Amino acid sequence: MVLSILQGFVVLEGLDGAGTTTQMRLLCERLDREGRAHAGTFEPTEGPVGRLIRSILARRVMALPLTVAMLFAADRHQHLAGPDGVIERANRGELVVSDRYLFSSLAYQSIECGFKRVLDLNEGFPLPELLVFLDTPVAVSQARLDRRTHRELYDGAGFQARVREGYLQAIEHFEGSGMRVLVLDGNRPADEIHEAVWTETARLPIHKV
Ligand code: TMP
Predict the structure, then answer these.
(1) DSSP 3-state assignment of 43?
(2) Cβ–ligand 1 contact at 57 (below 6 Å)
(3) Is the CB–ligand 1 distance for residue 100 below 6 Å?
(4) Which of 31, 145, 167, 198 has CB 3.0 to 4.6 Å from 107, enough for a Cys bridge?
């Protein structure tokens, strides 16, 4: 079971098209204006494992579901523990904001690999201090994605509805862990969502190093 909490680590999660990338940008711009040391990051990363994952998502490379789940966990390990990674940055007092983290694996890869198997693959990774889940109705996120020209591995309303269930299961699983969870209606205007994210983020204590 993943239990330790990494102070100064914030994660944004949601379905494809939920708006996590927009919220990540708005939050980082706000942190900039407020002069708070921070780092914006994302998964899959731009490292070699992350790039391989992107090729699989784009259907240029084929891999079995469990292989994909393992690759996401490997990419995460590098993201967390690699040089200039999440742990190093958070430990030097930066607020690290990640667009997606292990909750994505629990929501997406659990569909084909099972929740327990994915949880086991992610064992030992710390929880963020704050998890923001942008709960966008499947129809809304799908309409946003329909404007895209390319197709990805996890496209489709049926799959995304199951992803949403996976997120809710993951949030329930970590109840009582001490991680703060903010579930926001992703259908609200982006600036309203940002204000809610900001209010909760600004409450996080600044950790002295
Ligand atoms: P994004 O760059 O648009 O967020 O796309 C990343 C895709 O990868 C998205 O469909 C969610 C998926 N994903 C997983 O399936 N498992 C994971 O652990 C992560 C981080 C992302």
Answers:
(1) coil
(2) yes
(3) yes
(4) 167
Q: Which of 108, 133, 160 has most ligand 1 atoms within 8 Å of its beta carbon, as the pocket-test mutant?
A: 108
Does pLDDT of 1 surpass 50?
no
- Nearest atom (ligand 1) to Cα of 101: 20
Q: 42: CA distance to ligand 1 center in Å?
A: 9
Q: What is the distance between the alpha carbons of residues 53 and 72, in angstroms, rounded to a whole number?
A: 7
According to CATH, the superfamily of the domain at 5-202 is: P-loop containing nucleotide triphosphate hydrolases (3.40.50.300)
pLDDT of residue 151: 75
Q: Domain boundaries in the chain?
A: 5-202
Nearest to 36 by CA among 13, 12, 10, 11: 10
Pocket test for ligand 1, best of 13, 22, 79, 100 (most atoms within 8 A of CB): 100
Per-residue pLDDT averaged across 159-183, rounded?
A: 97
Rg (CA), the chain: 16
Task: Look at ligand 1, atom 21, and give the residue with the nearest C-alpha.
Answer: 104
Measuring from atom 1 of ligand 1, which residue has the nearest CA? Answer: 16
Structure confidence by residue, pLDDT tens digits, 81-115: 999 999 999 999 999 999 999 999 999 999 999 99
Of the candidates 79, 3, 83, the residue with the CA atom closest to the CA atom of residue 43: 79
Task: Give kind and range of the element (H or E) at residue 7.
Answer: strand 5-14
pLDDT of residue 95: 97
